[in-house]
Amino acid sequence: MSTTTQGSTLNQDEITLNTTTNTTITVTEQEFLVIGDNTDCRRNEAFDLPKSKKFKSSTTIISNGSESIIMSSNGNGTNPVETMEHTNGAMNCNGNSENNNSRTTQQSTTSNQMAANLQHQTSLKTPEIDEGLYSRQLYVMGKEAMHQLASAHVLISGMRGLGVEIAKNIILGGVKSVIIHDCGKVDYADLSSQYYFSEADIGQNRAEVANKKLSELNSYVNVSFSSAVIDETFLQENKVNVFVLTDASLKDEVTIGNHCHTHGIKYIVANTKGLFGQIFCDFGQNFEVIDTNGENPLTQIVTEISHDEAGVVFMSTDTRHGFEDGSYVTFHGVKGMTEVNEKEFKIAVPSPFTFTIGDTRNFGAYQGGGTVTEVKKPETVQFKSFSESLKDPEMLICDFAKMSMPANLHLAFQVLAQFEEQYNAVPKPWDDSDAEKFYELVEKLNKDNREQPLTDELNKHWIKLFAKTCTGDLCPMQAVLGGIAAQEAMKAVTGKFMPIRQFFYFDAIECLPENVFQSSNESIPVPKLPTKKSRYYSQEIVFGEDFQENLGKAIYFVVGSGAIGCEMLKNFAMMGIGCGNGGHIYVTDMDSIEKSNLNRQFLFRSWDIGKMKSKVASEAVKVMNPNMHIRAYVDGVLPETEHIYDDHFFERLDGVVNALDNVKARQYVDRRCVYYQKPLVDSGTLGTKASVQVVVPFLTESYSSTNDPPDPSVPMCTLRNFPNLIEHTIEWARDNFAGHFTIPAQQAEEFIRQPKEFAERTAKNHSEYDKNETIDNVKRILGADRPKNFSDCIKWSRTLFEQQFFNTIAQLLYNFPRDHVTSKGERFWSGNKRCPHVLKFDVKNTTHLDFIVAASNLLAHMYQIPQSRDRQAISEEVGKIHIPEFQPKAGVTIHENDEQLRADNERQTHMRKNGQGVTESEAEQLLGRLPKQNDIAGIKVQPHEFEKDDDSNFHMDYIAATANLRAENYEIQTADRSKIKRIAGNIIPAIATTTAMVTGLVCLEVYKFIQKHKNIESYRNAFVNLALPFFGFSEPVPPKRQKYLDKDFTLWDRFEVKGDMTLEELIEHFKHEHKLAPNMISAGMSVIYSPHFMRQTSKVQDMKRKISELFETVTKTKIPAHVRSLTLDMLCEDLEGNDVEDVPYIKYTFR
Question: Which of the 8 DSSP states describes residue 697?
Fold first, then answer.
């Protein structure tokens, strides 16, 4: 948008700031003016300078709200503080210069001190990245980006709610240093969103108070605070890479922006005003983005490359290859046409299953094998300065239902500064007169100094809502904007992911009452505004005191207190949910705190490791808001815990928020919410991606109404015999670990503990094949050949190496030689089948020895034998072990494909007993094949439960070595330990920025729940990808409607029956009340009533029995005391005898 707005325009030699009062402030390269009146930052009479006063030495003094910042460009080198004769702490933030000097010296980190500290740190070698702490973030950012973060210095000015949110996320992210800056003092208005402030801190410096808590978040980050001046020397000495400015005046944003743009400092502006937010990014000219989308490079298996002018590359036809026209690829492991290996090719894509690389006629002929991998190319992005962007903004759309909102807000944020300048005050909350004046200024700015208006869709209603609520502060809004802004700061440092270009505006006006934000009338209801300062003052400005009371009375259930759960509880504490009379928050989590949690789950500290998450999180948020009524559970929400989370528990809830990390648990909670007709917000993250789904009774579909397609599974034959990707060998290695160190030991342990019961279960529930395998496992683990010392463990490991990486492969090649041809005359080893080769053990090969060391120690631990980490001693010992020469076996069956494997499995299934009873003689016969109790007396085994995050337990050592050795067998490119750990451990990449942002979105929906919004248009589902960046908001999907007789129903509807009736009474109830005649009533898999299959005598008796009694009879279970209702299903006819296909279920409340 190219306009001539009343904002700032940048020329090479001069910056001019125009305001609505026609005041023009000119800043040249030679002279800088005092900008603004610095009311809150006056020091003494000498500082009260007339506005025409000019300072030499190219110095700018700016005021960040209540903060003062000095910037200097090239001049005569004179210190601006000395020039102004303020040599004794005069540029601090309070009125008394002597007090300021004392305070700064004793409590605040001066620029010289911080510079000295940072210079000392810089002289040291850059520390290694703590992979135990940053493991989940490493999978988002990568090691190179993490090293760049660990060298970055970030300055954040403004420590109210938004500033602290940004600081928290950046500190958790692991930069080298963060300086937090604020000259203002804590006030009641801060307490609704600044979670590190309390009433006891009122009157103290914001930065100083926030520093105490922020410093605890990450011991690797040097966090310091300043309430002193910030000048160019300060920025240079502290090597500031990124300047994040929050809650500043427009004048300051312009001046700082121009300085940062000129001096190569990455610059981010972030603001929230009530339900409206703004982010601006300027990363300079020629900013290089090294990863534009955050996706892992695509890799596909090559099956053929044509030897012609086009050079057509063929891949597996099972799936689309996913490559885009014009992208670049590189090949690895191609045989015959070796010229393509490790070279880049620009491709053309004629079909979803092929692409072309150009003329291959001068290359060798393709003979087989190979993978092709996408090469990510950097992209250079140009940024304009803040002042240029004000005039000609580039804006990112986030809600396509409100396309003109960004332009409206671009004007509104500028006019807010003009309004303050013209009326010497901000617009009063919910004041129609001020809102009208505000709109008039917006109208003027939209037209003035422009060839055409910035927008032709100026929305008066939106603008006036902005004016009426802009003085409020809302924690959820700051969580959203703080998460996004912090991610932008990380992009600025690393070049990882595409930055926002350049303005981003966000609003949540739907959180207001529906008769307010949807109104088109000039007159809208005004909330009851706060009459006194309280910790919720800034929230009450937006919503009113009555709504705050409703928040306090709310009862909510937070399921999970990990990363999302911690952020959610923090937001709830600031919002005041469950903090009033009758209100309550319940939170549950089954997990304890681990080191890897600390990078994202910010309520936890290193001294909390090992404690239960829900309990520690509850204690932490009680500190943030002592009024919060919160109870922590450590029991999962499962069918087995319905006696805890029973009818009484769910019925009194006002809503539920999911903070879970798996689909199965989400679906169960969703079913409970549908049953109890409670609103639910579900959210999740995957790296920089996040989603929010709103579930509202009777308005929307449920979480379980739609399912994501299942992840494609790898054919079992591929894993067992024909891997072609590193993912295959990693999955095989993970199963191999369980097959050697977990399952057999568990079976042996169970046999030692309960030999007879073990024999009965094995005989009853296993096929003959599985039964034999179980017996062999127990005999091997407990037999006479079990290891007695560590030398035995080494020998076992060396034998295992030979078996897995030589003998098995040699047998495979014996069955299918390299030149083997199928019955169709095609090469067997072609396409997706990579011909393997055996590995000869080499003690000097690091990976070979890694395997021996890990396997030996795992076995030793399993038998409680003292372990050894002495690689030299193990190396010497293993070299002495004699291994028999391999002899191929005839008659060994190796399945060529999954069809053969399935047929074999079906044969095994027919042999299974399918849960039928087992005779005592069968159990005794099986027991006779197992070791005698006398022979195993005193033997103790301890199974290995896979734990990916403990680097001392050899679990990942074994899996990494095994996966890479098998990859070598098949000439598959090996992987580093980090990638193997992610795949084997099924680790979900995660980063604090995404988590903070998504929980803010969730809590905005909770505002709507509390107000009981009735229209589906008021709610927002969300999908966000901060890497692109992409923001997609949409209305939830309504529930599917069904019909019986003349009545519509959805999944939210059911027949409500209250009081314990007899079967006869229940049938008559449905005939009379619903015109339906039941012909079958069931509870789960048990049939309570089916007249066609009941004997007459039984039918007569059952008709007089209570439903609860019949339920206990047919299910053969006693109804637990906590259960007050049953779920019954019904097949029925209408009263004319016609089948009625679909009817709702019955909620039968008998207590």
Answer: T
